[in-house]
């Protein structure tokens, strides 16, 4: 007996139920042509993940049911193919002030135009970026169905992180677990998933096939990397990460044992995974929202250089445009380095000096500022002129403005509201400065998309970072060394350590207090920042929800 299982690791679009149904139908026919008897699609594949408050709209749920029926009818003639489709199911009751979900995060098993079974997710995550208890109620029963003589227990994502659903599937007769998922990426998450699933199969003694989503959805990225594990926990098959794939795993019965085998894609390094996640996040945000291209301010510094390289890898040079906007304080080397990286990556590059606009604004404000020395006000005016120019070009040509600020800056407020924060997508908002440098070095050593080797000039990598908004300015005039700052940010933001706990690890108390204060008082800025790619397990986005008006100092 041989059972071939196909995993449709596809990039579904939220709300495009008809298009997603077509993708599933195409995958079903392709899988069948390759001899597969079972096709697994990811969690909520019919509507895309995460649909957020669209789940509260009755019309949205009805459209999902219609699309599911489209799949059922279209694949009815493929009699020996079983298809598992993830989708929302059920209704709700609503008043003007409250909506109570009576619906499920579900999966339906189809074969020959018939519904064989339907399963409701039992463990609903409500942490980090997840809000599933806002939308769904939990199922309470296992689902086991048979394909080619093998009894398969169906689980949905979080179910497999707990003991009971897998054990109860086995008690109901399951010989193999099929887990469909939509689990957002952060650096290291792929290894964490395989380790958890390894513990699951070793606990219940059943092999497992893990079907995962790929693609970018607003700030979330899903890296694919679907896989299969033997009953002893060994990796039996693995799909490539960050790309669509139809993974085929062969299941053989040997006595009472079930064996799995398939191709095993290699694992990537953390830098490679991070790079591919950022590229995929940009590509899908731009593509799924219909922007013709992107535009960014190129300063000659490390952050904008990195964002440019990511954008070109994601979209190609023809869809990327850069603008250098020198001020009276811009160094000649900045102009030269900006022009050089634009040349290496083959993008259009324009130079628009901001000095005339800056002088005009200073003149207009002079009577109001009389008797007051120049300070950060004049620095911010320069940043806001640049933001205005970029947004004007965006309005005129339709390109999306990419902001270039990193997580270190966003954490401490070392950025200008309505200035360098102005834009539509913040590519590296979840990448701290020290990681920015590591990624830049990685990209110079690798050319994964064939866009050009060694794109970032060496001088950009070695000169001290500076906003160049006043004479001889460097970032370290205002911030601790980035190695120290980023270590504190990681502990406070990503691990919820208190200032006292961070100091106990050997950090200077005054520096810790200063950094923590900066993080706290700049929440109002972060609330007004554009969305950007989430690549850590705690970003300034869906999983960071702190009040702006707040006197807690712990």
Describe the SSE topology.
Elements: E1 2-9, H1 17-33, E2 38-40, H2 58-74, E3 82-94, E4 99-111, E5 114-120, H3 132-135, E6 144-147, E7 150-156, H4 163-171, E8 176-181, H5 189-204, E9 208-212, E10 214-217, E11 220-223, E12 227-229, E13 235-238, E14 245-254, E15 257-262, H6 270-288, E16 294-297, H7 302-315, E17 320-324, H8 332-345, E18 348-351, H9 355-369, H10 376-397, E19 400-403, H11 407-412, E20 425-426, H12 433-445, H13 458-462, H14 482-494, H15 499-504, H16 509-521, H17 523-527
Parallel strand pairs: 1-2, 2-3, 7-8, 8-9, 16-17, 16-19, 17-18, 19-20
Antiparallel strand pairs: 1-14, 3-4, 4-5, 6-7, 9-12, 10-11, 12-13, 14-15
Helix pairs in contact: 1-2, 6-7, 6-12, 7-8, 7-12, 9-10, 14-16
Structure description:
By secondary structure, this protein is of the alpha/beta class. Helices cover 38% and strands 21% of the residues. The strands form four sheets. The chain has a seven-stranded mixed beta sheet with strand order 5-4-3-2-1-14-15. A six-stranded mixed beta sheet has the order 6-7-8-9-12-13, with helices on one face.
Short description:
The protein is of the alpha/beta class. It contains 17 helices and 20 strands.
Give unreliable regions as ranges. Answer: none
Total number of β-strand segments? Answer: 20
The structure class reads alpha/beta
The share of residues in helices is 25-40%
Task: Name the descriptors.
alpha/beta, 20 strands, 21% strand, 554 residues
